[in-house]
Write a structure and sequence with these properties.
Elements (H helix, E strand, L loop, with lengths): L2 E6 L3 H12 L4 E7 L2 H11 L3 E4 L8 H11 L4 E6 L4 H10 L3 E4 L4 H12 L7 H8 L13 H11 L4 H8 L3 H15 L4 H11 L4 H7 L1
Parallel strand pairs: 1-2, 1-3, 3-4, 4-5
Helix pairs in contact: 2-3, 3-4, 7-9, 7-10, 8-9
Length: 216
């Protein structure tokens, strides 16, 4: 089964370029494209893609607002921020909104494809530079709802960059069960994405930043 992708960017030449790159990989399928956040939300509802490639700076509704809306309505759809901006505030806002990853538009096509597949597999992937920056913005809730022993195991493996299938194999449980645990973890921690949960795990000392960096 192909990974279904929605491309969101206000420049048609960027969308066309991405479609050409992604069409070369038989595991990936572009199912739609949008020029702003409002279109992105409408198409995401309609198409329910596996992954959205989201530009951040767009008219009508920007990528941060669109990411937050899509993640709220479609928690199984992962969003990767794809932007030309590498600024702390832009990264923080995208991640707070629920983006799983953050890539620059000059990213090589093979790395982009790898990141899309990782996001679809439930894998957290952050470059060391981005992970270190994001740690500055992670706030541990005053009194988070306590995680079960199994949820802590899942969170630790997730933060180490393991995909859903790998977590399932390690804990001898089904992939659907892993997804349920992840959903419960996000709810209890009050965070919108696996990436935020992984950073939270580092802050709690469940894994080191080095382990997380090596995973990516």
């Amino acid at each position: 089964m192909s990974i279904r992708i929605l491309i969101v960017d206000d420049h048609s030449v960027v969308r066309q370029g991405l479609k050409m790159f992604l069409a070369l990989d038989p595991e990936l399928k572009v199912v739609g494209e949008a020029a702003n956040g409002v279109e992105a939300l409408r198409l995401a509802r309609e198409l329910e893609p596996d992954v959205v490639l989201m530009d951040l700076l767009m008219p009508v509704m920007d990528g941060v607002a669109a990411t937050a809306a899509i993640r709220h309505e479609l928690p199984d759809t992962e969003v990767i921020a794809l932007t030309s901006v590498l600024e702390d505030q832009a990264i923080f806002k995208a991640m707070r909104a629920g983006a799983t990853g953050y890539l620059l538009k000059d990213t090589e096509s093979d790395e982009l494809c790898r990141s899309i597949k990782a996001a679809a597999a439930g894998q957290v992937q952050l470059s060391p530079q981005v992970a270190a920056r994001l740690m500055q913005d992670v706030h541990v809730p005053e009194s988070p709802e306590s995680l079960t022993k199994r949820e802590i195991e899942v969170l630790r493996l997730l933060a180490q960059g393991k995909a859903n299938k790998e977590i399932a194999a390690a804990l001898v449980i089904g992939e659907k069960t892993v997804k349920t645990h992840v959903s419960n973890i996000l709810s209890k921690l009050g965070v919108p994405s696996r990436t935020q949960a992984a950073l939270y795990a580092v802050r709690l000392g469940l894994v080191s930043l080095d382990e997380m960096d090596q995973a990516g």
